[in-house]
Amino acid sequence: MSDARSSSGAVNRPLSPHIQIYRPLINMVMSILHRITGAALYFGSLLLALWLTAAAVGPDQFAFVNGIFSSLPGKIVLFGFTWALLHHMMGGIRHFIWDTCHGLDIASVKFLSTISGVVSVAATVGIWAAAYLAQ
Amino acid sequence: MNMRTPLKNARRLGSAREGTDHFWMQRVTAVANLFLGLYVVWLIASLAGADYAAVKEALGSPVNAILLLLLIVSATMHMRIGMQVIVEDYVTGEGAKVFCLLANTFFAIVIAAASVWAILKLSFAT
Predict the structure, then answer these.
(1) CB distance A38–B79 less than 8 Å?
(2) Mutate which of B41, B72, B109 to disrupt the A interface (most A C-beta within 10 Å)?
(3) How many domains does chain A divide into?
(4) Domains plus CATH for chain B?
(5) For residues A120 and A114, what is the distance between their CA atoms, to the nearest angstrom?
(6) Interface predicted TM-score (ipTM) of this complex, two decimals
(7) What is the pTM of this model?
């Protein structure tokens, strides 16, 4: 078995089937989206830091950053940022429920996964609509 | 004669009741992020279309500034642990992994430092 090692020195063990072999299920999709939205928010934090530092530095810098954010591409990114945040929040609440050992039967898992997706989209649209109406 | 207990050797190596530190901190910061995050989303949405003076005053007001500072600390801790899990899952080479983990820590600290500086300046600058 001395040849069963990769160049990095790790033993080449057989791998279990990965996601492409499974039919997508709602809880699996939500789990993957939880990680993707988490990673997106990680880099999205750069936008919040940029906005805050621009506001702290001065009116010209703030106007520059605000100009980018209020352009159409900027608004699309911020809309996505809002959804990613709310989706990750809803996923977090779902995980809190699961952490208490509740809602782990298949029907509840399906319900919690579906409702977190529905609420995240509805809340994102609601927040943006409210922000527009308040202006 | 060695008077030290074996616990001395086990501490900080992941088996001295510290194995769940990240798991627990991720949940503690998640609870904080949930409430602080909703508040800050509402705060920023309410500032949509506001001019510079209004934004500056809102971000520097005591309640908003303190809640923003708390969110920045909690969120950067949370995102550092989260990204560490992602790196440990997908980055296999030892050198690349150490590099990514270092970069992850530095990124989180830079975001936190820049944001905290901004809030403090908005709060205390005359």
Answers:
(1) yes
(2) B41
(3) 1
(4) 21-124 (1.20.1300.10)
(5) 10
(6) 0.86
(7) 0.86
